[in-house]
């Protein structure tokens, strides 16, 4: 990999290009840069979620995920490189199984709502889905290892589950359960 940043304002991107870890330069609208940006946005939103009151085990999991996302972004910036380990995908599978086991089965679709932490987890989930789509788009044009795509797919599922966990944790006193979509309510409103 290339050198770590020693200064931020290098002005080398003023021409509309950015440097990759292998030293090559690509346009800032390159598919690889788009995927890197979506992963960075996801990691930033997880940072916002970490600023909320969270159960200790969820906090530790999210911190680990932030580090793994940094590896994923590094891998995307390094054509042909591999930084994200298969064990990271397995960790997400295990977390999904653990947290989902304690939740009641869904009876209806849920809305991305509830406590502030749950709502932020839902925002993270949607950004994870966008990042996954960006990686899939990049993989249609260039060779990409499977782990980044798999990781983002599992992570979006886990963030959905964690949103449900956070609603039940009710650490801000404003939630307590999932917010269910009320299809009957919509039918009633449409009839009026």
Question: What does it look like?
Answer:
Helix 1 (31-50) packs antiparallel against helix 4 and helix 3 (86-101) runs parallel beside helix 5 (146-169). This protein has a single domain, classed as Hypothetical Protein Ta1238, Chain: A, CATH 1.20.1200.10. Strands 1-2 form a two-stranded antiparallel ribbon. It has helices spanning 31-50, 56-76, 86-101, 116-141, 146-169, 183-191, and strands spanning 17-19, 25-27. A hairpin with a 5-residue loop joins strand 1 and strand 2 (25-27). By secondary structure, the chain is mainly α. It is built from 6 helices and 2 strands, in the order E-E-H-H-H-H-H-H. Residues 8-165 form the Cobalamin adenosyltransferase-like domain.
Q: Order of helices and strands, N to C?
A: EEHHHHHH
CATH superfamily: Cobalamin adenosyltransferase-like
Oligomer: single chain
What would you report as the Rg, rounded to the nearest angstrom?
19 Å
Strand order of the largest sheet: 1-2
Structural class: mainly alpha
* Number of E-state strands: 2
Measured between the Cα atoms of the first and last residue, the distance is 62 Å
Beta fraction: under 5%
Organism: Roseateles saccharophilus (Pseudomonas saccharophila)
Family: Belongs to the Cob(I)alamin adenosyltransferase family.
Protein name: Cobalamin adenosyltransferase
GO biological process, one term: cobalamin biosynthetic process
